[in-house]
Amino acid sequence: MGKVKLNHAHPKLMEARYIEETRRLTYQQRFEKLIAIIELSYMLKNAKKYSKSK
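The structure corresponding to this sequence follows.
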């Protein structure tokens, strides 16, 4: 994957760009991206919740 850029455009254009980028990835890269998303989701799910108490 190349250098990450922040792009601001209409959501339909951003979605189309994302789909095209995903099609260019190899199956190994897709799998690694999926695993990273699953790991992040697991970490967020199990993170300690802090609340402000007065």
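The mean pLDDT is 86.
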